[in-house]
Amino acid sequence: PRMKETSGWQQVFSSPRLDWVIERVALNAKVLGGALGDHDKMVAVASCSEIILWALQADGNGSEIGVFHLGVPVEALFFVGNQLIATSHTGKIGVWNAVTKHWQIQDVVPINSYDAAGTFLLLGCNNGSIYYVDVQKFPLRMKDNDLLVTELYRDPTEDAVTALSVYLT
């Protein structure tokens, strides 16, 4: 729904009927000057390990961008800019890149917390490390085509990072 001051709430999109219960929802509002043009409004839903992503048009219609699988239950679903992110505490992240239209799954150590700042996704893990990925650049390592996940910090006692809060000026 969207709010119009003169007419109240209006429905802007209704998905096709799904055969499963929606457990997670992520909504991306229009990003000015975004790479997708008319497809800068997106909504994603997840159930268990399956994710469906739609692009929303101004007329209220939606077109399915894709169905993606994380391989493990999705525990967090959110956008960082136009990039869709799915995470699981088991140590998997999935990233859909809006420019390349590519879905990438990456194994990392088990994830306890996350936050996003600008185009950076930060992951707090149970081995005491904080990792980051610049999802805007969607960097891939040349040798194995994996996401470039960089360790930002490692706790010397390897205490799990159970909460993250990041603020960039």
UniProtKB/TrEMBL annotation:
This is SHKB1 protein. It comes from Haliaeetus albicilla. Gene3D superfamilies: YVTN repeat-like/Quinoprotein amine dehydrogenase. The gene is Shkbp1. GO terms for biological process: positive regulation of epidermal growth factor receptor signaling pathway.
